[in-house]
Design goal:
- The protein has 96 residues and is an alpha+beta fold.
- Helices cover 36% and strands 12% of the residues.
- The chain contains four helices and four strands.
- The strands form two sheets. The chain has a two-stranded parallel sheet with strand order 1-2. Strands 3-4 form a two-stranded antiparallel sheet.
- A hairpin with a 2-residue loop joins β3 and β4.
């Protein structure tokens, strides 16, 4: 799913599913650093905050992932390993 899909997805009661949730995603500074801030339809960090998400990020281009209940998000491609670990943790919690 592309950035527009994630940022526009609604859950129950027609609220955006990121509202009041801790989320990670590309930071605005990462987008600017690679010169994509003018090429994308919106900056993801800013959009997630506009939708009520509690965006958190680590240092630019470094691994950073977090889990808020069953929602697991990573900041960038370098975050893939940590994101996968958190998904496995969430799945184990469901089985237990």
């Amino acid at each position: 799913m592309d950035r527009r899909g994630w940022s526009q997805r609604k859950g129950r009661w027609h609220a955006f599913f990121v509202a009041d949730r801790r989320v990670a995603g590309f930071t605005d500074s990462e987008e600017r650093a690679v010169g994509l801030d003018q090429a994308v339809p919106f900056l993801l960090e800013t959009r997630l905050k506009e939708l009520g998400g509690k965006h958190e990020g680590g240092p630019d281009f470094a691994p950073f992932a977090l889990r808020d209940g069953n929602l697991v998000t990573g900041q960038n491609p370098a975050s893939a390993t940590r994101t996968a670990e958190l998904v496995m943790e969430a799945l184990k919690d469901k089985v237990a």
